[in-house]
Structures are given as structure tokens and as C-alpha cells.
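We were asked to recover a plausible sequence for a given structure. The inputs and outputs are reproduced exactly as logged, with field labels preserved.

PROBLEM: sequence recovery
POSITIONS: 543
GIVEN STRUCTURE:
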């Protein structure tokens, strides 16, 4: 990589905007800011730049976990989940988590965003953010009231849906009395159907696409292998960042703004390493407090799900084996994206209300025409051979709230991540109910005709005590941490509605950490929306 941009005195490089983190948000943000040739923009990424075969094939996302492309975070032992240290992957590559996730495109419910606006964030209601969802999207079905067709993120239907997936959608619609829907992203997500994915013709479309398109601009510099260790300040203004690179440490200056896009774990961590955060905690780890901001690292929210897995009849789902996987790889390569590897691991989806009086769905089912990883994802495991399918009931609005803390003042030390799963007992009870409903879906025609036997939790797990024990043993995060630098006007807010860090000039945050509450669905599309809106806020063009 080469440095470009304005140079300051001596060896210190200077740019108008320094964006930390080339993930789902940072790539979009840097590309939008650099559209004006008058702006010099530096995008910093700790991981590598290259795309590989597994990144291109959406079904292989799990192969990328625990590799150099993944931060591979671990939580603190979760007392209410059998003291497990649960695994939390996060993209460490240009494109971030959009380069290593399951490629699902889901926005949530319109009331999620109206709730943000009602909590003191004007400009963040559903009608306000819809144009930004549309802006980044190239919808294969064409432009409409809810979808854009001119953006760079390809969004398409999945070809070759498994028979068990089609059966799941019909059974869920029948059991819950909900419609079969073709679009979960028009404001009301209620219904059953198939996920759309951020892919085109079986190839992943990540936020890295924005950087590939913008790479030739002389005013945009992208630097990989650059680990940011702290923010530089002059009085009450952020003036740049310090970074570790191969060959030593460097400082870069930001003439206008430093923008953190390091995610719900990375952004609060960097603030605290720089002396912005809860003063008692900073003193505890030996960091001088520059700004006592109690909300930094608080309000950690995440979705947690539980796999209910079945052995399936032949031909109702792909038959997994080593020879089959080699054939799929060969087929994918010669077809340019065809076969099982060109689809997401997750194919089916249903958003349901567990009580008729609820305003919005409170439970989401992910459906995979594959066996699940047993007993959980805390350690790397292999798929089971044969035909199978798995339902993953997922809590959309968990009440348990956690936090991010530093483990020491060493920037290279991993942070303490404590989601406190099931610290609110209502979450455990709700996920147990989700497991029971998953069984009912599997017992409803036509999905029941695809099921040979329940593999997990298994026929022996029936009583409340047995089910609670198994949920604690096998439940997993589905990797949607948000909220740790939340937007708002209350005492716990870290950024204001324009994403400016309170009490500091020249510093903003634009990633999933700013979300005041968790959206009711997968969080990658909302994160990209935040980036699109942030760019307009920074450039003074907000709609």
C-alpha cells in the first residue's frame, strides 16, 4: 500500500478524514467521503485486504472464522449459560463482517427505527432511514418504494432453495397464521419465506465493493495491517490517531474529523484506550481520564438463538459428506457461483409474534437445510454427515444487557466482553418457548414429511428443567453485538443524533455501536445504513 494525501510537518501524515476500521460501515463511509475530490480520506484496517475463495462463496462463511480474517473474540464466562466463554467472530479484513458473515439482508421492523427517533434521535425514524437503506442497495428485483437498484451492495434471491426450506416456510405460515412473504424489508417483517442475500449469481457482495470501486481515487488512501492504538487530542479536539504497523508506530493527523467504524467491540475499546469512558474503570486499568463518559462500553445488546436439529429425508436437503463438498467446490468454480456453495447456510426465515397483542414480531426463525454444529459454536466443529435441517429460534429483543471493558491499558490485550446472556431470566424462558415452537413447526406438514428424527435437543429433553439445561448448554450468539456507544440525549448516550462524541470536537462514531436498541433482525444491513447516513451528516447533506 502507498500513502497519499496531505503531509504535515516531518514524518506525520495528514488527511482531512481518518476512518478507523474498513468494515461494513467504514468502507462505505470512506468511499462516500472521497466522492468529493477536495476531501483527502485515509481508511485504516488492522486486517488484510485480499479476498479469497471462501469469501466469494457465501456458504463457506464458517471456514473464515478463527482465521486471520477474524478477530475471534471470546466473551467472559457467562454464568447463566453454564459459565461458557462464547465465541464472537468479527471481520478483520477489508469489508469487515460483511466479508465473513452469512450474507443475510434484513432490516428489521419499522418500529425499531421509530423507537430510535422517539428516544431523542430526530432523523432516525423509519421514513428517515429508508432512503439510506435504498442508497447502498442494488436490488436484483429492481427499484421500488422500499428498494434501490443503483447502489453497490448486490441483494438477490437465492437460487436452488432446498425442498426442506420451502416446506419450512409453508409449515411456519400454517402454524402461526402468518403470510408467506417475498420481502421482509418493507417495514413490517411479519411472515415466513426465504432470505434475500448480499450476493449476485452466487458470489458474495460485501462492503469491500465500495473500496474496490473507489480505489483509483487519488484522494483516498487505504492502509491495511494498521492497528490503531489510540486517538490523538489537542485540547478538546481529536486531531489524529496512533497506529502500529509492520516496522513500528506512526501517527496520522485528521484536519477535520476522526471517525470510528471499528464496531460494537472495537469502537468503545478504542475510546477507553484513549481516555474516554467511565472514569472509575479507566483508573482501574491505569489510563488517565480525558473525558468521563459513563456510557462508553455500556448497553451491549446481542441476539441469541438455539438450534433445533433434525435428520432429514434424502433429497429434502443437501447430503453433506467430504466427497460431496469436493464436488460442490468443483461445480462452484466451473459454474462461477452455482450449487450449494453459492447459497447462504441460512435459507428460510420467519418473523412471528409469540403473543397476539404484540406490536411487532419478537421471535425470528432462521432455517438451514443442514445439520447444526453440536453442541455449540464455542469451539470449531464440523457439520454432521448426511441430510439434515435446523431451525434456530432467535430472540429479537432480549432484555439482558451487557458491557465492554478493557482488560488492561495494553492496546494489544483483548477486551473483556460480557453480554450477560440470560441475566434476565425472561430471556431464557422466551428462548425455551422458541424451542417448543420450533418443534411444532417441524411437526407441521409439509416439513414433518422431511423429518426423520429429532437429533437435538432430542426426544429425551422434554421437561422444563431438561430443556432449560439444554438451552444453557447449546444456545449461541448469532453475532449481532450493538449499542456500546449509543446515540441519544440521555446521560448514558455516547454520541448525539449526528453521531458526534459528546464533549469532544472532531470525533464521530459510525457503526453498530451507536444503535440505541437492537434492531429486530440481522444487523448488517442496518450497519450499512448507518454509514450512508453518517456520510451525509458529515458532509452536511443529510436528508
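RECOVERED SEQUENCE:
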Amino acid at each position: 500500500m502507498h500513502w497519499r494525501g496531505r503531509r504535515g510537518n516531518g514524518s506525520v501524515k495528514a488527511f482531512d478524514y481518518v476512518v478507523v476500521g474498513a468494515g461494513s460501515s467504514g468502507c462505505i463511509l470512506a468511499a462516500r467521503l472521497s466522492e468529493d475530490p477536495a476531501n483527502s480520506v485515509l481508511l485504516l484496517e488492522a486486517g488484510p485486504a485480499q479476498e479469497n475463495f471462501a469469501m466469494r462463496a457465501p456458504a463457506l462463511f464458517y471456514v473464515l472464522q478463527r482465521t486471520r480474517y477474524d478477530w475471534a473474540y471470546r466473551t467472559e464466562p457467562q454464568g447463566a449459560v453454564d459459565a461458557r466463554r462464547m465465541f464472537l467472530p468479527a471481520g478483520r479484513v477489508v469489508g469487515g463482517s460483511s466479508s465473513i458473515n452469512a450474507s443475510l439482508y434484513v432490516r428489521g421492523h419499522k418500529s425499531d427505527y421509530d423507537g430510535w427517533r422517539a428516544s431523542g434521535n430526530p432523523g432516525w425514524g423509519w421514513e428517515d432511514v429508508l432512503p439510506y437503506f435504498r442508497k447502498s442497495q442494488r436490488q436484483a428485483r429492481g427499484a421500488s418504494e422500499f428498494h434501490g437498484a443503483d447502489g453497490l451492495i448486490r441483494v438477490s434471491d437465492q437460487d436452488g432453495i432446498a425442498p426442506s426450506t420451502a416446506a419450512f416456510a409453508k409449515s411456519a405460515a400454517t402454524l402461526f397464521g402468518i403470510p408467506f412473504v417475498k420481502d421482509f424489508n418493507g417495514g413490517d417483517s411479519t411472515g415466513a419465506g426465504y432470505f434475500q442475500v448480499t450476493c449476485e449469481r452466487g458470489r458474495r457482495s460485501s462492503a469491500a465493493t465500495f473500496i474496490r470501486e473507489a480505489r483509483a481515487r487519488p484522494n483516498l488512501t487505504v492502509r491495511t495491517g494498521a492497528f490503531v492504538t489510540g486517538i490523538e487530542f489537542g485540547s478538546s479536539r481529536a486531531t489524529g490517531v496512533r497506529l502500529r504497523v509492520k516496522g513500528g508506530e506512526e501517527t496520522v493527523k485528521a484536519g477535520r474529523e476522526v471517525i470510528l467504524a471499528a464496531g460494537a467491540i472495537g469502537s468503545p475499546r478504542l475510546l477507553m484506550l484513549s481516555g474516554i469512558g467511565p472514569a472509575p474503570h479507566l483508573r482501574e486499568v491505569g489510563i488517565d481520564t480525558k473525558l468521563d463518559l459513563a456510557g462508553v462500553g455500556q448497553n451491549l445488546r446481542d441476539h441469541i438463538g438455539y438450534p433445533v436439529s433434525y435428520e432429514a429425508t434424502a433429497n429434502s436437503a443437501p447430503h453433506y459428506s467430504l466427497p460431496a463438498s469436493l464436488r460442490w467446490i468443483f461445480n462452484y468454480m466451473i459454474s462461477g457461483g452455482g450449487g450449494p456453495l453459492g447459497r447462504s447456510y441460512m435459507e428460510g426465515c420467519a418473523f412471528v409474534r409469540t403473543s397476539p397483542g404484540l406490536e411487532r414480531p419478537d421471535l425470528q426463525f432462521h432455517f438451514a437445510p443442514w445439520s447444526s454444529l453440536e453442541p455449540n459454536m464455542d469451539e470449531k466443529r464440523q457439520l454432521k454427515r448426511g441430510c439434515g435441517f435446523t431451525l434456530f429460534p432467535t430472540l429479537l429483543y432480549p432484555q439482558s444487557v451487557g458491557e465492554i471493558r478493557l482488560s488492561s491499558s495494553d492496546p494489544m490485550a483483548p477486551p473483556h466482553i460480557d453480554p450477560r446472556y440470560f441475566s434476565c431470566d425472561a430471556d431464557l424462558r422466551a428462548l425455551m418457548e422458541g424451542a417448543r415452537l420450533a418443534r411444532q413447526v417441524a411437526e407441521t406438514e409439509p416439513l414433518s414429511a422431511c423429518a426423520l428424527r429429532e437429533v437435538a435437543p432430542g426426544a429425551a429433553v422434554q421437561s422444563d428443567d431438561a430443556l432449560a439445561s439444554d438451552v444453557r448448554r447449546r444456545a449461541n450468539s448469532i453475532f449481532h453485538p450493538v449499542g456500546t456507544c449509543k446515540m441519544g440525549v440521555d446521560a448514558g448516550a455516547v454520541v448525539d443524533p449526528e453521531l458526534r462524541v459528546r464533549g469532544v470536537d472532531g470525533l464521530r462514531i459510525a457503526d453498530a455501536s451507536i444503535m440505541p436498541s437492537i434492531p429486530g433482525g440481522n444487523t448488517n444491513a442496518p450497519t450499512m445504513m448507518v454509514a450512508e447516513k453518517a456520510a451525509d451528516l458529515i458532509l452536511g447533506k443529510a436528508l
